[in-house]
Amino acid sequence: MKKRIASLTSVVLHPLLLMFAMLSLLSFASTANTMEAIKWVLISVGLSIIPIMLSIVYLVRSGRLDSVFTIVRQQRTRVYLLAGGFAIAGCAILSYLGAPSVLIAAFAAGLSTTIIFMFINLRWKISLHTALVGASVTVLVILYGWLALITAMLVPLTVWSRVELNHHSLAQGSGGALLASLIVLTVFYPFVLA
Q1: CA-to-CA distance for 33 and 150, rounded, in angstroms?
Q2: How many CA atoms are closer than 13 Å to the CA of 87, on its beta-carbon side?
Q3: Contact present, 108 and 188 (Cβ < 8 Å)
Q4: pTM
Q5: 98 — alpha (psi -120 to 50), left (phi > 0) or beta?
Q6: CA distance 67 to 35
């Protein structure tokens, strides 16, 4: 039963699903009307989640990754490189199109996280699941104040699920959440203050 709960938690709080939720929230929070928000959701998802997912599926089919949800540390470098490339392109295109600054800030924070995690991954398999949860909680607190801190309960739940499934150690899970939160505070938060 614990494994099933851990597995469900990992699926529901998957990094790509959280990215979609946060990009949608940021788009709706930073625009004046629904159509404008939907436009930025579609553009943001088209610059990040869709190309990353298509690239991962291609790598799996060509035998370069063992699965869509690869747990082999050495295989993750390809995914980090792809995500970094898409984040750079996303930042440039969003800036050119005049996207809301919080979306550009989210892409910049994602790029920073990708680069830092890629180098850490050379020696240590830091958790992307917990990183996205920690980053999301931090963004919510920045945007909505201390009331959003209730979402912080998702961090230990996600850490537990990754440890329970034997995908990460407690240090890898906790480290992912903490480091991503610090990156959001350093990269994303200044955009909100501007």
Answers
A1: 28
A2: 18
A3: yes
A4: 0.92
A5: left
A6: 36
